[in-house]
Amino acid sequence: MVNTILQSIQLKQQVNANNQMTHAIPRDREYKPAIDRLLNTLSLDGKSRKQVACQQVIRLAAIVCIVGLMGVGFPSMADENHNLQRISTERESGSRIEFRQGEKIAFLGNSLAERMGLFGHFEAYLQSRFPDLQLQVRSFARPAEAVDVQQRSNDYTKIDDPQAVFDADTYFCFFGFNESFEGDEGLEAFEQNYYRYLRMIQQRYGTDRTRGALRFVLISPIAFENAQDGFLPEGDSYNANLKKYSAAVQRVAENEQLLFVDLYQPSLKLFQSTPGLQFTINGCHLNLEGDRIVGQWLDQALFGTPHPASLSGDHFEILRQGIIDKCWTHSQDYRKVNGWYVYGGRRTWDIDTFPLEYQK
To answer: Whose C-alpha in 25, 213, 290, 303 is 20 to 30 A from the C-alpha of 79?
Structure first.
């Protein structure tokens, strides 16, 4: 509890520092809209203050939640109808995608997407490429996530379903790495489970929408980097499977006429060009430089034109650091540390412990 309170105090100090930063930062046009949105997010409007006050009492001074997001997840698919059918989505022409004003973008999948919140490059490229579109980006990815396995605490969506609250327009799906350990025997099941997963997302979050049908972008896993370290595995056998599972992701995308981004081939070439761990921390999880490069690959694959903004210097770094702060705060909500107390078997704060405070 002490650590939680200290974290809340640190975040408050960070918010105050960001508020002061509003008057101290010279901002050129290409970054001003994106930076302003992040500073407004961190400075907490009236609605967020109410949520923060409620959470501090209810959740024993838990980490502040910003932008009105409530943690999302994927309940079990056991109750879903697994009969395959075409996903009703908007079709992208060629290899490009266009975003609407106020587009809501969500990341789903494994650690490749989840760890992007540690470095912030890809979202920073998105925000600085489209500074006037007011894009909203949230990650709901988790380590060990697979198309057929989404483990959550009991009663994870009992209070609400934060993914439904966010109501994304476009989903970037990062799958294939965890499933690749099944080898050749798991390939067919992986493809079939991917179809079912997409259909489940479509049925659960794509109905009764006023902003059009959901859109999906399927992204392959990256290659495995050879560590050349006796204490870490080499990547040859892993890459043989990852190549096949990347091709499987591409087949799913082509069959459903969805946009596909291949990260496996460029990452394999990059990893083979320089010996040792240069772009990952352990062969499979990207470090800062690896995240920067993968973010650039995604940006180029999606939009196909040189980035219009400057990707170096203070302005970009301010934007990236603000995104990292936002991602960290969001993760404290959709991946609550003590979920058993917040929405599980020990949930009493809205019923017995602080009912009147919660109503406020």
So the answer is: 213
